[in-house]
Amino acid sequence: MNPRRLLIACFVLLLSLPAFAADNRGLYVNAKWGDSDTDASIEDVFDRVTGGKADSTAWELGWRLNNFIAFQAGYHDLGRFSGSVPCPIPELCGDLDTRIETEAVAYSLSLVPQVKLTRSLSLFVKIGVFALEGDVEAILDNRTEFLEDASEEDIIYGAGLMLSLIGRFSIFYELEYLGSNIESQYLGASFQF
Fold it and tell me: Model-level pTM?
């Protein structure tokens, strides 16, 4: 094929994309419920490690540019995770490990490409950045002692399937990773304004 004709065809296709996507632009909101599994080392002198599963929720607000791409911001409540560390005060607990708990939330900004598989089923992927904040607490003799604030910035990525229902409502399943330490699985609902 003539390279000039190919270039013209690509240009015409590019100009026509907004016409195909005009019905799907605009603001949307997602609500997600699921669980998060973590195995995170919190960098400090005690080399604390937290891990396990916790119930998690997330709220996302996005802007869909067309049928193929969206940008979104999210708030993720990752729940409360437990772990153990060597006792930071040996006089208090001897050689026993100390139980610690971390309650964490994350904020994210993501690019979300999407492709329709059928009229009502879409595949989407997510790539972006997140900032995590958490409070690390030690449980000593049935009382809670605050240890430190934990924070982390890393990439967020994931994929999912979205099923369009009636009107502007959709439901979806999503597998999402926050860095290499936190894996979340969600069932969610979406509304397009």
Answer: 0.72
pLDDT digits (tens, 9 = 90+) for 124-136: 999 999 998 887 7
Torsional sign, CA 88, 93, 99, 103 = negative
Lowest model confidence (mean pLDDT) among 14-18, 99-103, 124-128, 150-154: 14-18
Q: Regarding beta strands 69-86 and 48-64, do their DSSP bridges make them parallel or antiparallel, or are they unpaired?
A: antiparallel
* Percentages of the chain per state (helix, strand, coil), in multiples of 5: 15, 70, 15
Listed by start position, the domains of the chain span 26-192
The residues, ordered by sequence, that sit 6+ positions from 146 with a Cβ below 8 Å of its Cβ are 135, 136, 137
Options 3.50.50.60, 2.70.150.10, 2.40.160.20, 1.20.120.450; CATH for 26-192 is 2.40.160.20
